[in-house]
C-alpha cells in the first residue's frame, strides 16, 4: 500500500463536505484545532452550500472535492461531516492526479465510500473524527488524529469484552460504516477482505438491519478468508415492537460463529466521542487476550 506523506507544520489541510450540508460556524472548532497544530486551513466552497439536505448540488460537491484532490499544495482533505451523499459523486471524481501524488483523506461514516474506493487504488486513508464532531470529541480521539497525521506511532490497548474471540492476527485494516459497506457490495468501490482485518461500526439502525447486513456480507464471502474483526461503536440501535431477540453484539457473534478469527467488540471508534483514529490499508497486529486487546500498526 502507498502511504501519503505525513504532515509538517505549515502544511495545508482542506475541509470540504461530500455529503450533508454544514455551516462554517460548525467547523470553527476544527479550524482552530488545525491552526493550533501549526497547520494552514483551506475551506471548500461546499461549506455553507445548501441543496435540500446536501452541501450543494452533486456537481458543486464534485467540483469542490476535485479541486482539493488536484491541488498539489493541499496535503490532506478532511471531510467535514457524513450523513449521506458521497456515493452520489464518487463515480464522477477523477483520481488520476491523486494517485500520482496521494494525500490523506480523513473521515468516517459516509466517508467509508471514499475509504473503500481509494483502498482499491492501493493507497492508505485515515478513519477518524470529522470537523463537525471536534467540539464533543475526547482529547484521546483528537490526539490520535494528530499523531496519525504527523507520523507519530499509534497503538491501542483496551480491556477485553466477554464476547470477544481470543487470538492473534496480522493484516491490512479495511472497513468502515457497516451500512455503507453493505451498500457498496457489487460495485467497483467494494473491497476484497481476503487476508485482511475488518473494522465495522454503525449508528441509528434497527437490530434486524444489522442481521440482514451481516448475513449479506457473509453470503458475499466477506468473512471466508478474514484474519480478524474489530467492532467499534454500534450506537443508538433500535428494536421493533416485537423484539428481534438479540443485541447487536449477539447478532454479530452469531453470524460469525462458524469462523475462527479473533474478534474485538466495543473498540473506541465510530459514532462515539472517543473516536480513535485508524489507518485503513496499513498492516496491523491484533492480539485479543483474556484481559487486554492490543492493536499496533506497522
Q: Would you mind describing this structure in some detail?
A:
The chain folds into two domains: 12-150, Murein tetrapeptidase LD-carboxypeptidase, N-terminal domain (Rossmann fold, 3-Layer(aba) Sandwich); 155-297, LD-carboxypeptidase A C-terminal domain-like (Glucose Oxidase, domain 1), CATH 3.50.30. The chain has eight helices and 13 strands. The chain has helices at residues 24-36, 58-70, 96-100, 112-119, 139-150, 178-184, 207-219, 248-255; strands at 12-16, 40-43, 74-79, 104-107, 125-127, 155-159, 167-177, 197-203, 228-235, 263-264, 278-280, 283-288, 292-297. α6 crosses α7 and α7 (207-219) runs parallel beside α8 (248-255). The radius of gyration is 18 Å and the shape is globular. The protein starts with 11 loop residues before the first strand and ends with a strand. The mean pLDDT is 98. Keywords: Carboxypeptidase, Hydrolase, Protease, Serine protease. Belongs to the peptidase S66 family. Residues 170-286 form the LD-carboxypeptidase C-terminal domain.
Q: What value does the Rg take, in angstroms?
A: 18 Å
- End-to-end separation: 12 Å
Structural category is: alpha/beta
Please identify which CATH superfamily of the largest domain we are dealing with.
LD-carboxypeptidase A C-terminal domain-like
For the largest sheet, list the strands in their spatial order. 6-13-12-7-8-9-10
Strand content: 15-25%
Average pLDDT works out at 98
Largest sheet: 7 strands, mixed
As an assembly, this protein is: single chain
The CATH C-level class name of the largest domain: Alpha Beta
Helix content, binned percent: 25-40%
GO molecular function: carboxypeptidase activity; serine-type peptidase activity
Active site: 109, 201, 271
GO biological process, one term: proteolysis
Family: Belongs to the peptidase S66 family.
Amino acid at each position: 500500500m502507498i502511504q501519503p506523506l505525513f504532515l509538517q507544520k505549515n502544511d495545508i489541510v482542506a475541509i470540504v463536505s461530500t455529503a450533508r450540508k454544514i455551516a462554517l460556524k460548525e467547523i470553527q472548532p476544527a479550524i482552530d484545532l488545525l491552526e493550533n497544530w501549526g497547520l494552514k486551513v483551506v475551506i471548500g466552497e461546499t461549506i455553507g452550500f445548501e441543496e435540500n439536505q446536501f452541501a450543494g448540488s452533486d456537481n458543486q460537491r464534485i467540483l469542490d472535492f476535485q479541486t482539493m484532490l488536484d491541488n498539489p499544495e493541499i496535503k490532506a482533505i478532511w471531510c467535514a461531516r457524513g450523513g449521506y451523499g458521497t456515493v452520489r459523486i464518487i463515480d464522477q471524481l477523477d483520481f488520476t492526479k491523486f494517485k500520482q501524488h496521494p494525500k490523506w483523506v480523513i473521515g468516517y461514516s459516509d466517508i467509508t465510500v471514499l475509504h473503500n474506493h481509494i483502498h482499491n487504488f492501493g493507497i492508505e486513508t485515515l478513519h477518524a473524527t470529522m470537523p463537525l464532531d471536534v467540539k464533543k470529541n475526547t482529547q484521546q480521539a483528537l490526539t490520535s488524529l494528530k499523531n496519525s497525521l504527523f507520523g507519530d506511532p499509534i497503538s491501542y490497548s483496551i480491556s477485553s469484552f466477554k464476547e470477544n474471540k481470543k487470538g492473534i492476527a496480522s493484516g491490512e485494516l479495511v472497513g468502515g460504516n457497516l451500512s455503507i459497506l453493505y451498500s457498496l457490495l457489487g460495485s467497483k468501490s467494494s473491497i476484497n477482505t481476503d487476508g485482511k482485518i475488518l473494522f465495522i461500526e454503525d449508528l441509528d439502525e434497527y437490530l434486524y438491519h444489522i442481521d440482514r447486513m451481516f448475513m449479506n456480507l457473509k453470503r458475499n464471502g466477506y468473512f471466508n478468508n478474514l484474519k480478524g474483526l474489530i467492532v467499534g461503536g454500534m450506537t443508538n440501535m433500535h428494536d421493533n415492537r416485537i423484539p428481534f431477540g438479540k443485541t447487536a453484539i449477539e447478532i454479530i457473534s452469531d453470524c460469525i460463529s462458524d469462523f475462527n478469527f479473533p474478534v474485538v467488540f466495543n473498540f473506541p471508534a465510530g459514532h462515539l466521542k472517543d473516536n480513535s483514529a485508524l489507518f485503513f490499508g496499513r498492516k496491523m497486529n491484533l492480539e485479543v487476550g483474556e484481559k487486554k486487546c492490543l492493536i499496533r500498526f506497522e
